[in-house]
Specification:
TIM Barrel, alpha/beta, eight-stranded parallel β-sheet, 19 helices, three-stranded mixed β-sheet
Length: about 525
Amino acid sequence: MTYQAEIEQLASSISAQGAPWSGIDAESITRMRLQNRFKTGVDIARYTAKIMREDMAAYDADPANYTQSLGCWHGFVAQQKLISIKKHFGTTKRRYIYLSGWMVAALRSDFGPLPDQSMHEKTTVPALIEEIYTFLKQADARELGLLFRELDAAREAGDEVKAKQVQHQIDNYETHVVPIIADIDAGFGNAEATYLLAKKMIEAGACALQIENQVSDEKQCGHQDGKVTVPHEDFLAKIRALRYAFMEMGVEDGIIVARTDSLGAGLTKQIAFTREPGDIGDQYNSFLDCEEVEGAGNPGDVLINRGGKLLRPKRLPSNLFQFRPGTGEDRCVLDCITSLQNGADLLWIETEKPHIEQIAGMVDRIREVIPNAKLAYNNSPSFNWTLNFRQQVFDAWEKEGKDVSAYDRAKLMSAEYDESELSAAADDRIRTFQKDAAARAGIFHHLITLPTYHTAALSTDNLAKEYFGEQGMLGYVAGVQRKEIRQGIACVKHQNMSGSDIGDDHKEYFAGEAALKAAGKDNTMNQFAA
């Protein structure tokens, strides 16, 4: 319904109520409705799930249509990211938000900073999803409020052409609300616990849930040691739990991202149940590091039958069983195939380095079974991107027979190489990594898990160094405020960003001329009008 049609419909409803509703203005209600388009989190989940499904289909048609996101740990950070995207690119198309369990643990837990080991309160995750969407909806309300002011000014000036242009912008307004891919870790317990938490996350607005195949109570960050995986049947039960949650909440096209940590996980807590040779349990057990046993073995031994031989899986003092070295890629491929065959929509393979051919080698094998397999990939700050890509270029040049004698491979991170030919070639590979990996390695979604964690630390360090040093207040003015003004950062008018003008509008709707508004001539935000 267009802006004008909505006004006319509401005017009719108000008129039908007679004198008691005479103080209610149809256009004001229309504006409030447009500024609050999404009434519930489930509305958001349905809307954004449709976007993701359309984007996945577009990627299948052309891998150039890959999607991206940045991890955000606060609603304000997410809001500013989307405002920036709209400012610079004019659209939020194919740009999402990633909600990282790592950042929730490190920054949002009541216990204080925690490692990424599922020790934080699990309700913190749905609370952050709700917070992010509250801030994104407020960004809509703020931007639409500015358009309404433009419309009023055009009318007052008698400029009908301008008024129609602004009304067209209102009718075709693009929301800041975009899909969130939300990290549910390893499910925070059994499948029932996973299902209950998933419902909370969907109620808050999540259309995509990412779950990993680690043991819940032994969960580790994907880029740390000591990771322990679960048998496939255990993981598939949690995938089904997520689908049940989506279906129950009426978000039937919700997206499940199945993450495998098997590449870096050499341990398992359980030996899988097997019904017959070659089934999924038997395949899982086939990767166990075992030794042949004569007789009945030792007291307390766990023994398995493999190919008619009695074998003892190697068990550590921690009571964990270990896999054979070098089986990580094979286990990843099996994890991915079984996940997609049992309800997952996207894959996530956690790797130890950003290497396109390593990822592509696994994806090629997966696509032999499931041709349209697609990945979300963690462009992680845990990788030293500069060092990794300089090493990749060094190795490629050496293989090609190019003279690399000017470089010491062990010291390629050194600043002395920053202006070198090798550094430039490495940076070019980093620049095109996402596009190249989307085309070659089946990566539909590129995300950075923790970028705003690092940007907050970096910008604060720069400010503290200047402000508490010789620059004093100039450290803030030149390093922050003046840059905000020159770069057109909307947040320089922080009263407007916080919702002060929206509140003024409401005061006027409710009280008319009696409204006590904040945006008068003495408001210091007027200093930024130019």
